[in-house]
Amino acid sequence: MAVPLRAIGVFHAVARSASISKAAGDLGVTPSAVSQQIHSLEALLGTSLLVKAGRRIKLTEAGERYFDMIADQMERIVEATDRLRGHHAVTVLTVRITPTLATKWLLPRLSTFVERHPHFEIRLDGTNEPTDFGREDVHVEIRHGTGQWRGLYVEGLAEERFFPVCSPAYAKAASLSAEALLDHRLIHSVKAQVQWPAWFKAVGIAPDRRWRRVLFDRSHMAIDAAVGGMGIALESDLMMARELRDGALICPVARAHEVPIVTQWIVCPHDHLRHAKVRAFIDWVREERDRWAASAGRKAARIRRANRAGESFR
Q: Among candidates 176, 157, 160, 177, which has minimal Cα distance to 300?
């Protein structure tokens, strides 16, 4: 019996997009033609592969198993066909990510992913707006928030530590007490999950006066302001990893209190994890996260030693 390759290709397109109309547009055929191919494949296999879920469709249990078995092979067929036609196979991977994490953490590392996967075309969408995966063509997101998003795959990126920082030209490492910060201009990142009032409360200080401050709606702006000597910021070691590494930022507070928290999360629909490109990106992010965490641990130990000794820690 001949293998119905056309019907299998149509099923793959529908399962990948979760939409008959979108698959029809991608294939250049009508939605009714797509439905006919799916029905013929279901008749051949003797089982239903798709069911309606509102305006969209989803895979049945049999459909999920079948898609898992053919997805990688179909992607290899597409790649081989393009190469034989004289083209480089290109797979688009769209990643939505918060602007600060994109600028301060992801971009300095992204070349390693691009070099490892030269056939991927990476599209970064830097925004704090959460993705509507049902309507937007985004494959995976690194989202800022609490991690409470039902119905999605959610994985914490890393535990961050928030502590005061400034330029070494502004103040020396471990040269100030926590109380003394009230005499300095404090830089606020208004969307950060750890704010100055919470930090002062954690160290047992109840400010008796209004302090000087400057506010930014993006953490990368607050970090850059601190590097420029504008004042003292309360920021995450994940977001300012490069500045800490290069000595552009130091902790001016002796025995500084650190607030540990997870604020960045890898997020996508569970069915996106079937895509090889999504799995490749998440695996790479985990590798970079683990490498950063090991380095941050060593840096944190040096910071604590410097704070105790009252020395700088470049």
A: 160
Residue 215 neighbours by CB distance under 10 Å: 11
Cα(214)–Cα(68) distance, integer angstroms: 52
Give the CATH fold of the 160-262+297-309 domain: D-Maltodextrin-Binding Protein; domain 2 (3.40.190)
Note the pLDDT of residue 302.
Answer: 55
Q: What angle do CA 110, 143, 119 make, to 5 degrees?
A: 35
Three-class SS of residue 22?
helix
Mean pLDDT calculated for residue range 28-48? 89
CATH number for the 5-84 domain, one of 3.90.150.10, 1.10.10.10, 3.40.1000.70, 3.40.50.620?
1.10.10.10
Q: Give this prediction's pTM.
A: 0.66
For 166, other C-beta atoms within 10 Å of its C-beta total 27
